[in-house]
Design goal:
Layout lengths: L5 E3 L5 H8 L7 E5 H7 L1 H9 L3 E8 L3 H12 L5 E5 L4 H14 L8 E5 L7 H8 L5 H14 L4 E3 L2 H11 L4 E4 L18 H6 L4 E4 L1 H4 L4 H14 L1
Parallel strand pairs: 1-2, 1-8, 2-3, 3-4, 4-5, 5-6, 6-7, 7-8
Helix pairs in contact: 4-5, 7-8
The structure holds orotidine-5'-monophosphate.
Length: 235
């Protein structure tokens, strides 16, 4: 798997995406999430893919097993490299997602890696207790979801950097820890609660980092991306 920082293309439409990507000379690893996909659909996936970039399609599926299986079957034909579901959907749902992905991947094509979101990086332990009524610590909840995800046969999880090391120890180094909530030192957190710097992420056990606004909101996105890469690759 490509280990470059994944840039979250959280833009309202194709025009903004192409304007952004046009500033880069190298091939990137990008994330197409709900904001963009709801506007542009599979077309934007195809167009970004045609430019040679790797794609994490982040639609965070969470439904009954049969529905997620069928949806994944459809997504599998879009040629993306990484896709996700919510671990809270349960083991059967995750197994269904994997089956759908296998069934929908065209013969001879490489199957996308499948990961599950544990606790969103915008969640605090207090909010998890109050709103989800989970009585564990946040780290225990994330670890529980990671182990459930591993039992279901998926390739890894989305978590914050704060839990990455514990997941590596419990689930092994090959089990992906994909960590959003990345900020440069002193950068604005926005709606994120569990944040870390790119070098902190590397030191604390992330396998891949997802970076959105620290790059897309920068005056010079190419320079910001290079700074993130330098910190991520330094250790
Ligand atoms: O699955 C994700 O990618 C995801 C999970 C999570 O727990 N937290 C999280 O922020 N994300 C995504 O990662 C990106 C983070 O964006 P920034 O906060 O702008 O860096 C967004 O596109 C989120 O949708």
């Amino acid at each position: 798997m490509n280990t470059k920082p994944i840039i979250a293309l959280d833009f309202p439409g194709e025009k903004e995406v192409m304007g952004f990507l046009g500033q880069f000379e190298e091939k990137l690893f990008v994330k197409i999430g709900m904001e963009l996909y709801m506007q542009e659909g599979p077309t934007i996936v195809r167009k970004v893919k045609e430019q040679g970039h790797d794609i994490f399609l982040d639609l965070k599926l969470h439904d009954i097993p049969n529905t997620v299986k069928s949806a994944m079957k459809g997504l599998a034909g879009q040629g993306v490299d990484l896709v996700n579901v919510h671990a809270a959907g349960g083991r059967m749902m995750m197994e269904g997602a994997l089956e759908g992905l296998e069934a929908g991947t065209p013969a001879g094509a490489k199957r996308a890696a499948l990961i599950a979101v544990t606790q969103l990086t915008s969640t605090t332990e207090q909010r998890m207790h109050d709103e989800q009524k989970i009585a564990l610590s946040l780290k225990e909840s994330v670890l529980h979801y990671a182990q459930l995800t591993k039992q279901a046969g998926l390739h890894g999880v989305v978590c914050s950097v704060l839990e990455a090391q514990a997941i590596r120890e419990a689930c092994g180094d090959d089990f992906l820890r994909v960590t959003p909530g990345i900020r440069m030192l002193g950068g604005e957190a926005h709606d994120q609660q569990r944040i870390a710097t790119p070098d902190g992420a590397k030191k604390d056990g992330s396998s891949l980092i997802v970076v959105g606004r620290a790059i897309t909101g920068a005056v010079n996105p190419v320079k910001a991306y290079q700074e993130v890469c330098n910190l991520w690759e330094a250790n």
